Amino acid sequence: MDTVIEVRGLSKTFKIYHHRKGFFGSFANLFSRKHRVVQAVHQVTFTIKRGEIVGYLGPNGAGKSTTIKMLTGILVPSDGSVTVNGYTPHRQRKQNAQRIGVVFGQRTHLWFDLPVQESFELLRRIYRIPRAQYHQNVERFDELLNLGDFFQVPVRQLSLGQRMRADIAAALLHNPDILFLDEPTIGLDVLAKSRIRQFIQQINAERQVTVVLTTHDLDDVEKLCKRVLLIDDARLLFDGELIALRQLLSRERILRVDYAEVYPDINIPGARIVYQEGTHVQYRFFSEQISTAALIQAILRKFKIVDISVQEPEIEELIKTVYEDNLILSRSSHPS
Amino acid sequence: MKSLALYFHFISLRVRAQMAYRSSFILEFVGQASVSVIDFFMIAILFAHFEQLGDWQLWEVGLLYGIIGICFAFAEMVARGFDTFQNLVVRGMFDNMLIRPLGTFYQVLAHEFQLRRVGKLSQALLIFLIANSHLDISWRLNELVYLLLTLIGGTCFFVGLFVLGAASCFWTVQSIEIINIFTHGGIFMGSYPFDIYQRWFRHFFTFIIPLACVNYFPSLFLLDKVEAVGVSAFGVQFAPFVGMLFLSVAMLFWKRGVLHYQSTGN
Fold this sequence. Notes:
The structure holds 2 protein chains of 2 kinds.
Chain A: E1 3-17, H1 22-31, E2 35-49, E3 53-57, H2 64-71, E4 79-84, H3 93-98, E5 100-104, H4 116-126, H5 131-145, H6 160-172, E6 178-182, H7 190-207, E7 210-215, H8 218-224, E8 227-232, E9 235-241, H9 246-250, E10 252-259, E11 271-277, E12 280-286, H10 292-302, E13 305-311, H11 315-324
Parallel strand pairs in A: 3-7, 3-8, 5-6, 6-7
Antiparallel strand pairs in A: 1-2, 1-4, 8-9, 10-12, 10-13, 11-12
Helix pairs in contact in A: 5-6
Chain B: H1 2-19, H2 22-50, H3 58-83, H4 85-90, H5 93-98, H6 104-111, H7 118-134, H8 141-172, H9 178-190, H10 199-208, H11 216-222, H12 226-229, H13 233-258
Helix pairs in contact in B: 1-6, 2-3, 2-7, 3-6, 3-7, 3-8, 8-9, 8-13, 11-13
């Protein structure tokens, strides 16, 4: 398989300027260079091969979006090199743009006031998509994502889930080789998330589209990615098969229960009590040892409850475990 | 050719969106026109007291006013996207432009087209025509071509100012209000003959910010005042091209600026 993305020693620093307000302030801003430097991405190196689905995982503010913006030609790197499809994105931005698709979860890349269909037509002209290919694609994406439900609705009136479906379909109209998805499932409900994930898998299988997806949702990674890049505090911590993170991803879950009354013995096999105060109890358990459903059934058989909830561990915990288990990528021997 | 067709497609979408709110469109149209009428009314009042300003009669000043007004209205109509560029950055829409296989300058230009500026434009044109009817300009092919180039050059000058203001966003994020001194302030200054101003002031607005090339030098040419004022005849011939040059320089700044773009955090 050939390499489609090559990143070497990539860094990005931002200068955050101090702004003075008012008329004279803005005049002074012209001349003063008072600023602080923020390191958003530091010495990141990786390669991605055609057809891969790679999860770019990290907490908020770790540098995921900044990396994507350098790969798509939005930002110019401060140091290091990026090659995408053989192009240097910020120098050959237009050629690169013709062969990639980009979706930002936080905001649409479509035209806010236009109906979805007109946005699509506009993209057909912008990317000079042959009509046959355009209609074929729209038809196929409609099959998979039911775009027809809201094809005539202005983008600003779409629900978040609909908007994301429209955005992803739109980013694929010109048959890009690579699809960049920046937090594609953020804010979506469980059903909408799984729909988006299925679509990504399908497209990847059908068209060999390389997918790079940033997320802080561990479920996204588990369901979609064989390979994971883990980034924290601007640095790449881990690059390798998801399986290598398997134990970490098996993740201890937390079950919170509010009992109707105080029971003398509330031990449940397979879960351990980590916190108890009156009728409120917290259990920790591994989902391999006992499923969430079995655990809840076991509790309901014995006791009366008022409220119950399961908490998935957060990505911050995963990163902590990576640090503790010393899985951190060393520069001399990184797997790939 | 395809990109020109696409440009008009973008523009037609914009205009249609503006027409969707018809009553607000008409109100703004009328507002645009009447504000500039009041502007010229102020100048006329001045002349009611003084009869002439230096060697300039009321309708000669009307010519100055008409030309700069037409240029500015045109510039605002086609290049408002640069004037409000800061919004595009803040709303992340410039990121969207950077992921398209099209030039950024082209896209920002195509992003906005304000049809309601026709209000201002028609009013400036009206003043120009009335002024012309009171004046004795012999319109031969030479003068007509010169006028056309003047209007194009003047529009380019104001577009250039908008582009400079927008490009400054790449370095400061905040758009600098200083550009407004040269746009709206420029209209005000340019509505009076430059020979009433100080020497350093005239030089600044000829060689640094070539506002005088928009309407003052062209008016000298059309009114046959070049010798009387004592400016270079060649310079006056060249004046319409200065605006185009100014825009080219602004576009170079723009190109450099895009490489400094910092985007916004998500």
